Amino acid sequence: MKNFKYNSIINSQNSLLITTLLVTQFSIGQSKPDPNYKGVVGKTLAESKEYWPEPVKAPEGAPNVVWILLDDVGFGATSAFGGLINTPTFEKLANDGLRYTNFHTTAICAPTRAALLTGRNAHAVHVGGFSHTAMSAGFPGWDGRIPSSAGTIAEILRDNGYNTFAVGKYGVTPDEDATDAGPFDRWPTGKGFDHFYGFLGSETDQYNPDLVEDQTWLNGNTRLNNSGKDKSKNEFTADLKGKHLSELITDKAITYIDRQKNAAPNKPFFLYYAPGATHSPHQVAKEWSDKYKGKFDEGWDVYRDKVLANQKKLGLIPSDAKLPTRDSYVKAWNALTPEEKKLYAKFMEIYAGYLEYTDYEVGRIVNHLKSINQLDNTIFYIVLGDNGASKEGTAFGTIDQPLTSKLFGGTKSDDLKQNLSKVDILGTPDAIEGNYPYGWALASNTPFKNLKQDAHSEGGTRNPLIVYYPKGIKTPGIRNQYGHVNDILPTTLETIGIKAPETIKGIAQDPIQGTSLAYSYADAKAPSRHTVQYYYIFGSRAIYKDGWKAGAAHHPDFIDVIDNGALAKSTGPSTYENDVWELYNLNTDFNERVDLAKKNPEKLKELQAEFDNQAKINNVYPFIDWIDALKQRIHKKN
C-alpha cells in the first residue's frame, strides 16, 4: 500500500512534467514574437526563418562631431574675439567658420553643462545650481540629478550609430554617486558615453587631478565635493605625475579616436572635449606664462580699451560701441599701488599662458584629425566659456588659500602681504587655488559689465561660439542671431540629419527646449528663432524676449563664518522683494548701458510676468541664493 501510494505520486509528477514540457514547447512555437521581429518562429528549425536586425548606422556621410567647452573664459579674452591672449587655433577655426556674437550660457558651470548635454533648460533637468551635496536642494529644479527623460546628446548619437567619448570636466554627477560604489547611471558612461576620462566635479588641480577613467578612480579618490579634497591623500598614478591635465585629456581623446577609426574607419564619432581650463587653479608651465611678461603692466582699464578697438575691427560689435562704466567694485588701475600693479599683472600673465596653452592642446586635436584625413568631415562647436570670466579670485587674487578664507577671513593688507610673499609659486603645482583678481575678469568680459554668476547681465552669460564645418559651411562669417547653450544639441542633430528621439531605452523623452541654429549657417540676416530665454543663478535673474531683456541683480546678506563653518550672523540689504530690476533694449544697446526701466515700466512688467511664467514651467522656484546654499550645506553637515 505504501509503495502504491509512492508510485502513484511519482507517476502523477512525471505526467505533470511531461504535460508541462509539451505545453511549453507548443507555446514557444505558437507565441507571438516581438512585433519588431521580421522572422518566423515555428515549432522546429525547419519550420522557422531566422532574422537578424540591421546594425544601427549613422546617416550616410554623417560627420564626426566635436564639442569643445572651455571653463571661465570671458567674451573678450581670446584673440579670436578681439582679446589680447593669443589663441591661434581658435582664430583659425573662427576665420574658416562662423563666429556667433550673441550666444549665451547660464552664468555658472553645472547648469550650463546640463543644458548643453540635454538641449533643455538647466532647472528643467534638475540642475539649477550644482550636483554637489553642498549646493543642491530637494526640489525638482535643484536636486542635481538629470532625469532619464532628458536624454543627452551622447545617448542620442550612440543610438544612431556614433561612438561617443568625453574627456575633461563632467560636473553633473551627484556627489553621493561619485564613489567606487556608484551607482553609475549618472556618471558619463551611464549617460551615453562609451568612454570617459577626466574629473567628475567642478574643479581640480591641473597637476594632481581627481582623475577617473570610465567608472574607475585612477588616484585613490573615493569622493568628491565642491571644495576639493585633502591633497595629501591623493595617490596619483606614478606614470601621470607631473603632466598637465590638458595634456592628459588630449592624449586620451586622440587614443579614443584612433582606436575607433582603426576598428571602424567609416563610423563617425562624437567627442566632448571639456578641459578644466581656464577654471582655477590657474596652473601652467612657465614657458607659456613667460610669453606674457610685461604685457599687462598697463592694467585692466587699458586692456578694456584695446580689446574694444579690436572687436570693432573684427566687426564683432557696432562701430560706435562704448564700454559700460567700470563696475564699482573694481578699482581704477591707476589707483593701485606699485606693489598691487606688479602682483596683479603677474596674475594675468599666468592666466594668459594658461589660456594660450589650452588653445595649443585643442590644436593637437585639430592637427591629428587633419593627419588622419578626418578634419574636413568633422563639425566643431566651440563654446569659449561656460560662463563669463570668474569673480572667484576676489579683489586681490588667490594663490594657495581656499576662496572661503579669502572672503571671510583676514584684511586687504593681510591678503596683499601674503600674496606678495608667494608670488613665485603663481602658476606652479603649489598654486592650488590660483585665480586672478576680478579686475581682470571684468577686463576679460569686454565689452560687457559684470562677471560669472551674474545671470542678470550679459557679462555673466554671453560667451563666444565658433562653428567650423568645412563640408557644410562654405562661406565664413559673423552671425548675430540670439542663441543659448541649449541650442547646440538640436543644431547638431539637424546638421547631421538625426531627429530627436521620442524614447530612449523605452523611456519617453521630454521635449527639446533649445532651437537649432542651423538656419543661420547660410543666412547672416535671418531673424533669430530663439526668442525667449530665462536666466537664474543664486538669486540673480533675467528674462530675454524678442531683443528686450529685464534683469535683477541679487546681493545676498553679509555673513561671518566661524571656525566650525557655522553661520554666525546674517544681515544685509538685499532680498528678493527689494532687488532692483533693470530693462534694456538689446537691439539698440547690446552691452546694457542704458537702463530703460523707469522710462518704460509697462515693458518691464510684461517681462517680469514672462519670467514668472518661465520660472514655473522650468521648476526655477523656490529661489535659492548662495547664502541659502551655504545654510543648506551647514544643515546637511550637522
Question: Could you explain the architecture of this structure?
Answer:
The relative contact order is 0.15. The chain is globular and about 90 Å long. The chain is built from 15 helices and 20 strands. Strands 7-6-5-4-8-1-9-10-2-11 form a ten-stranded mixed sheet. It has two domains: 64-530, 3-Layer(aba) Sandwich (Alkaline Phosphatase, subunit A); 531-638, Arylsulfatase, C-terminal domain (2-Layer Sandwich). It is an alpha/beta fold and 638 residues long. The termini are far apart. Helix 5 (245-263) runs parallel beside helix 8 (338-371) and helix 7 packs parallel to helix 11 (438-444).
Termini Cα gap? 74 Å
* CATH level-3 fold name of the largest domain: Alkaline Phosphatase, subunit A
Give the name of the CATH superfamily of the largest domain: Alkaline Phosphatase, subunit A
Strand fraction band? 5-15%
CATH class of the largest domain: Alpha Beta
**Spans with pLDDT under 50 lasting ≥5 residues?**
1-30, 222-233, 406-410, 558-571
Report the mean per-residue pLDDT as an integer. 89
Q: For the largest beta sheet, what order do the strands appear in spatially?
A: 7-6-5-4-8-1-9-10-2-11
Share in helix: 25-40%
Structural class: alpha/beta
Q: Give me the Rg, rounded.
A: 28 Å
The general outline is globular
Query: Please, how many domains?
Result: 2
Major pleated sheet:
10 strands, mixed
Architecture of the largest domain, according to CATH? 3-Layer(aba) Sandwich
Quick one: how many beta strands? 20
What is the helix tally?
15
GO molecular function, one term: hydrolase activity
Domain Sulfatase N-terminal: 63-498
Keywords: Calcium, Hydrolase, Metal-binding
Protein name: Sulfatase
